[in-house]
Each structure stands twice: as C-alpha cells, then as structure tokens.
Design a protein that fits this description.
232 residues; Rossmann fold; 7-stranded mixed sheet; 25% strand; binds S-adenosyl-L-homocysteine
Length: 232
Amino acid sequence: MLMINRFLSFCVGNSQPLSGIPEARALDPFASERERMVREQIWQRGIRDRRVIKAMRKVPRHRFVPAEMQDRAYSDRPLSIGYDQTISQPYIVAFMTEAAQLKPESVVLEIGTGSGYQTAVLAELAQQVYSLERIPALAEQAQQTLDALGYQNIHIRQGDGYQGWPEHAPYDAIVVTAAPPTLPPLLLEQLAVGGTLVIPVGEGSQSLLILSKTAEGYTQKGSFPVQFVPMV
Ligand code: SAH
C-alpha cells in the first residue's frame, strides 16, 4: 500500500494540496477520504491517465451530493441525487473520462449533467464543456454548485440530449451518462472526425461503448457491461 501511495504521488506530481498537511485538512475535511478513493477505487483498478487522476484528486465530490449524504460521498457506488437520478460511481466517472481522451484544447459535450460532478471532472481536462440536462431543477442545482467552485469553462443548458447541442459542434468528445436504447444519430453527427463518443447503450442490459468517429462512420474501441439510468 505504501509503495502504491508513493508511486501515486510520484505519478501525479506534488502540485496538488497535500491531504497530510494539517491546514489542508482543515480547509477540506474530506481531503483524506478523497485520496483514499483515488488510491483504492481509481488507481488500483487500473486508471493510469495522470491528468484524470489529478482531476479526481481535486474535484470535491462531497459538494455534489445532498448534504445528508456527504459522509458517503467517497464510497464506491452511485448515490441518489433526487428526481430518481444518481451521481455515478467514482470509478465509472474516471473510466469514462479516461476513455474520452481529452486534451487541454478539447471541446466536450456531456449529456446528463445530473449533479455536475462528471462535468467538473471533464472541465479539469478540457477547454470547454457543454452539458445538457433534462430535469430543470438538477440543471439549476449543478450550475450553482459549479459556480460556487469557480468553474468558468462549463456551460449548462436544460434540454433534450437526443438533440445534442448543435451550436457548438463538432465536439472532440461526447460523454453520455444516461443510457438510450440505441445510438442517437444526432450525437454521432455532432462529433468531430477523430473524436470519441463514450455512451452506455441498451435497455435492461447495457454496454458502455467507446466509439471513434471516422470519415465513413465509426469504429468501436471498447464495450463494457454497465448499469445507467435510462436516457428518456
Ligand atoms: N453524470 C451525472 C449522472 C447523472 S444520472 C452525475 O454523475 O451526477 C443521468 C442524468 O441524465 C440524469 O440527471 C437525467 O435527468 C439525465 N437525462 C436523462 N435523459 C436525458 C435526456 N434525454 N437529455 C438530457 N439529460 C437526460
């Protein structure tokens, strides 16, 4: 464990606030829980992109869950955020973000803002993040949380994810966090050639697909069994 710990700090550099420093802990009482989440749920399960790890170490997940659930914010599972929706499990957020292969200049579209947690992680890695949420109250709440944290490269709109957000297309990556029964054609259309679509697809049993758009259509880079709320 110690070796993994040391290797992890080596890998991500030491520019992050150190949870071992008393002042840092006073500023963020969840800092050590977040470090543990990254070590046990993210690093030990094989996420290796150092920018993704840095983002997961930084974004305060407890700010994205209802107050009465803050003590469970860093546990290894999704949590209810009301309206029959959930904040995704930390590992899934890291996995989807790594799969999106973002660069600092990337423009990203997210479908299903929910709590805004995945939005924040994406915003740590990309230049601009556009995010669509169907439920107005969730869109509003996420906007407030992200404003309070000072994000300036996130744009949230209440709307239907099946339509995408054509004004800012084409996107270098599209990350979908609710599962449609089949691949929505407009999302593929709004993806840049060479861009990546990360999307759970299916009813009942779902697969997380990682697709890369080509001039002729797309190629599939991966498929993993998952369970997301339906995209409606
Ligand atoms: N990434 C979010 C996951 C939220 S759950 C998080 O970690 O907090 C999926 C979200 O997708 C829900 O908020 C749900 O309201 C939203 N959603 C479902 N269908 C949608 C649609 N057609 N368009 C936009 N958002 C949709």
